[in-house]
């Protein structure tokens, strides 16, 4: 018997080509997506290769901006991680060895609804000035934003500045200055970087005292005799 032209074999030949066309279309789509992904990855790598040397070059010549964690930011005014005692000293109005007399008041320096007082001003008594000059008794502000604040009865080496800025921004100012007279009130330079505990004649930095919170610090003191630390700051 002779099969007619419209036999199953002819039907099968008509079905097969569309199946191959579908596979070819899917393969081309996947290939296009893969190519686009490769372009994005390569562009990202090239961008990183361009930026990385610039960051290293800048960081080697200047103080580095803070990106690390632990105990809050290093300095809410400048966001700087100081790379040496000379740079920390250079940004200070004075460096003083002082004893903490008492807590004078607490306040919230960035007022907002529900703001908790995390800023404190202490009355201190200077035993010696390593850099600059100033009154015997004055005020120093500290913040729990910088980790544990200075404590009454303890002695510290403090890197200080009295450069106060708080520009008005109606209807509410962006910050609140301490209530003590600004002419005799100082803030810490570099936050926790600018305060060193003196205990039994030895000096300790916050990185040594609280290593889990302040691993990002560069300037530090680990049981250094006070006289040696003073010479290091003044050199």
Q: Tell me the strand order in the biggest sheet.
A: 3-4-5-7-6
Q: Kindly estimate the percentage of residues that lie in beta strands according to DSSP.
A: 25-35%
Quaternary assembly: single chain
**CATH-scheme architecture of the largest domain:** Beta Barrel
CATH class of the largest domain: Mainly Beta
Helix content: 25-40%
Low-confidence stretches: 5-16, 53-78
What is the CA–CA distance across the termini?
A: 113 Å
Q: Report the count of strand segments.
A: 10
Task: Specify the biggest β-sheet.
Answer: 5 strands, mixed, barrel
Summarize model confidence as the mean pLDDT: 76
Q: List the domain count as a whole number.
A: 2
Describe what this molecule looks like in 3D.
With 235 residues, the chain is an alpha+beta fold. The protein has two domains: 7-62; 80-234, OB fold (Dihydrolipoamide Acetyltransferase, E2P) (Beta Barrel). Helix content is 31%, strand content 26%. It is built from four helices and ten strands; from the N terminus they run H-E-E-H-E-E-E-E-E-E-E-H-E-H. Strand 8 (195-199) and strand 9 (202-204) form a beta hairpin. The longest helix has 54 residues, at 8-61. The N and C termini lie far apart (113 Å). 26% of the residues are buried. Residues 5-16 and 53-78 have low confidence and may be disordered.
Keywords, separated by commas or semicolons:
31% helix, 235 residues, OB fold (Dihydrolipoamide Acetyltransferase, E2P), 4 helices, single chain, alpha+beta, five-stranded mixed β-barrel
């Amino acid at each position: 018997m002779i099969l007619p032209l419209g036999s199953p074999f002819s039907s099968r030949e008509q079905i097969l080509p569309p199946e191959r066309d579908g596979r070819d279309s899917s393969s081309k789509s996947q290939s296009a997506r893969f190519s686009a992904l490769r372009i994005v990855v390569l562009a990202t790598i090239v961008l990183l290769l361009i930026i990385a040397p610039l960051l290293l070059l800048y960081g080697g010549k200047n103080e580095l901006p803070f990106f690390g964690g632990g105990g809050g930011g290093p300095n809410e005014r400048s966001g700087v991680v100081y790379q040496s005692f000379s740079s920390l000293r250079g940004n200070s109005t004075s460096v003083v060895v002082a004893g903490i007399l008492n807590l004078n008041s607490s306040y919230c320096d960035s007022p907002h609804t529900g703001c908790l007082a995390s800023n404190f001003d202490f009355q201190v008594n200077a035993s010696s000035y390593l850099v600059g000059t100033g009154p015997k008794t004055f005020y120093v502000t500290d913040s729990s934003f910088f980790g544990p604040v200075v404590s009454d009865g303890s002695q510290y080496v403090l890197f200080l500045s009295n450069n106060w800025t708080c520009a008005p921004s109606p209807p509410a100012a962006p910050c609140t200055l301490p209530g003590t007279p600004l002419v005799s009130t100082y803030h810490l330079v570099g936050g926790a970087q600018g305060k060193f505990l003196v205990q039994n004649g030895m000096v300790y930095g916050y990185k040594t005292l609280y290593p889990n919170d302040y691993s990002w610090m560069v300037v530090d003191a680990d049981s250094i005799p006070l006289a040696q630390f003073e010479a290091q700051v003044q050199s």
